[in-house]
Write a structure and sequence with these properties.
By secondary structure, the chain is mainly β. 5% of the residues lie in helices and 34% in strands. It is built from 1 helix and 10 strands. Strands 2-10-9-4-5-8-7 form a 7-stranded mixed beta sheet, with helices on one face.
């Protein structure tokens, strides 16, 4: 791995509360991200979002996207679809959000805090991977191609 990559979001701070609009109880749109220290060798970006607090399924994948263009700003509100033509033909895989972002949405009766970890990967190549890929397939395809990675965690808790 090369230099240190860091990720921030205008939507929430690391370990901060995620606003309703980025959840399944709101508009359910993907948050924007800013990357610092991105290596010039990167050819593509990937994001994996997992909920670390789903009982018996840890981590529970919510969103998979790969082959994003290498830019220091990843826009929010990415559209649904297997292939995102306006975003370097990025692909979205099979997770809780099947070919789309699906933000926090713990059951209404669950009042415990859930930690949603967004990990962004800088890759040395685009991945030749079907949009039907799940988290394990994406991780396997990225193996040996990750130049950098950074994470940011958002917290969501249902209110009474």
């Amino acid at each position: 791995m090369s230099s240190q990559l860091s990720v921030t979001s205008r939507a929430f701070s690391d370990n901060g509360t995620m606003p309703l609009k980025y959840t399944g109880y709101g508009v359910d749109q993907s948050p924007p991200f800013t990357l610092k220290g991105l290596t010039p060798e990167a050819e593509a970006l990937a994001i994996i979002l997992v909920d670390m607090d789903v009982p018996h399924i840890k981590p529970f994948p919510h969103w998979l996207i790969w082959n994003l263009p290498v830019k220091s700003e990843i826009p929010g509100n990415l559209p649904p679809g297997e292939i995102l033509g306006g975003y370097g033909d990025a692909k979205q895989g099979a997770a809780y959000g099947n070919h789309c972002y699906r933000g926090p949405k713990p059951p209404k009766f669950a009042h415990d805090r859930h930690h949603y970890v967004f990990t962004i990967y800088a890759l040395d190549q685009k991945l030749a991977l079907s949009a039907s890929a799940d988290r394990d397939a994406l991780l396997a395809a990225m193996k040996g191609h990750i130049l950098q990675e950074a994470s940011i965690t958002g917290i969501y808790q249902n209110k009474d």
